[in-house]
Write a structure and sequence with these properties.
mainly alpha; Amino acid/polyamine transporter I; 15 helices; 2 strands; 2% strand
């Protein structure tokens, strides 16, 4: 193989995965992933299903607590460093926007104006399905707490930085989200909250009417920042799955210049465009959340089984078994609750996706079936994107 490349450009067999993410990059990935447009635009899904301001605020706090427990228990195409710096920039912008809302609400409360918070727990729902749907909405807005786990191979000093980033990020976001919702309720009535197409904009019309245009700009920055992180993380998931033989081989390749999984990033962009077709965001949230909690529950079972079978194996990060057990109980509740009443259509869709995945798994993964001509497609994409197979973790010195 070496003789074929004498006098030519150096032959690139594999590309190593480099550790180029530090503490601040890690925090920005988690915080930036969690804080998107949801807290600005449509946090009303929690209030709709919880029924009262008091229970709504409790569920927001509980969702933050669940995020902390899970993240502790589990413990795009240009440049990784440029992407990380972009994450930090947009994380600062979105947090600054939320701090503006928090300060406005605190001013109202200090004046003795409590808005709809005075209604307390009036109208609280006791229906398990409604509570589960409220948690779905809350946890979707908290979505992103797990993202740093997916790029551990690129995180510098993960034994120190992973738990430190998780604790810092989840604590920060839980406090911010709780205070933002208190600010919303200090200004808006329940009816105004539920009827608003963008809660932050409605809030701004009352509090900063002369500068209300600032909120849409902040929402745009927040959405864009979250989008860049979503592409960064999701492409690494596809990359890891392909390297494990679960996805087509080309998705496990890295660009030889930027060290970025270009094929996986392009795939995620294409899938994202398809996901924008459905008009009902509530349906998308329910489908994604339902599948997520099923897989998380399975992960918790696997975690406990492996902990029992490999009890003598030393690991860098070790958590008490009570945590995965608590999370498993939460997962069971959130998966079962939607079926305690007439089942919504989207949950049947979710089950259909799982069945389809199992059907495709048998021939392509279990039986190692390869489509005719797939090697030619892989070579063509490799040349087009200038990518090569990534060095496996056990090959990195």
């Amino acid at each position: 193989m070496e003789n074929d490349h004498i006098g030519k450009e150096p032959y690139i067999d594999t590309v190593p995965v480099k550790r180029r993410l530090g503490f601040f990059s890690g925090v920005s990935i988690i915080v930036g992933s969690i804080i998107g447009s949801g807290i600005f635009v449509s946090p009303k899904g929690v209030l709709v299903n919880s029924g009262s301001v008091g229970l709504c605020l409790i569920i927001w706090f509980v969702c933050g607590l669940i995020s902390a427990l899970v993240s502790t228990g589990i413990i795009n195409c240009i440049s990784v460093k440029l992407s990380a710096r972009t994450h930090i920039l947009f994380t600062v912008l979105k947090v600054a926007g939320l701090l503006m809302i928090i300060i406005g609400g605190l001013v109202k409360i200090l004046k003795g104006e409590f808005g709809s918070m005075s209604s307390g727990f009036e109208g609280s729902s006791t229906n398990p399905t409604s509570i589960a749907m409220a948690i779905y909405s809350g946890m979707f807005t908290y979505g992103g707490w797990q993202n740093l786990n997916h790029v551990l191979e690129e995180l510098d000093n993960p034994k120190r930085n992973l738990p430190l980033c998780v604790i810092t990020s989840i604590t920060l976001v839980t406090v911010i989200y709780s205070l933002v919702n208190i600010s919303y309720f200090s200004v808006l009535s329940k009816d105004e909250f539920l009827s608003s197409w963008a809660v932050a904009v409605t809030w701004a019309k009352y509090e900063i009417s002369s500068a209300v245009v600032i909120i849409p700009i902040i929402v745009a920055c927040s959405s864009y920042g979250t989008l860049t992180i979503a592409f960064f993380i999701s492409s690494r998931l596809s990359f890891a799955a392909a390297r494990a033989g679960l996805f087509p081989e080309i998705l496990s390749y890295l660009n030889v210049n930027s060290n970025v999984p270009v094929p996986s990033t392009i795939l995620i962009v294409m899938l994202s465009v398809v996901m924008t077709i459905p008009a009902d965001i509530g349906m998308i949230i329910n489908v994604i959340s339902f599948i997520f909690w099923i897989f998380l529950g399975v992960n918790m079972v696997a975690f406990m089984v492996l902990r029992y079978k490999m009890k003598d194996v030393k690991t860098s990060i070790k958590v008490p078994l009570i945590l995965p057990f608590i999370l498993l109980m939460i997962c069971i509740f959130l998966v079962v609750a939607p079926f305690l009443e007439p089942v919504r259509t989207e949950f049947w869709y979710a089950l259909g996706y799982l069945v389809l995945g199992a059907i495709l798994y048998i021939p392509f993964v279990l039986l190692h079936f390869r489509l005719p001509g797939i090697d030619g497609v892989t070579k063509f994409c490799q040349s087009l994107m200038i990518v090569a197979p990534a060095t496996k973790p056990d090959e990195i010195s």
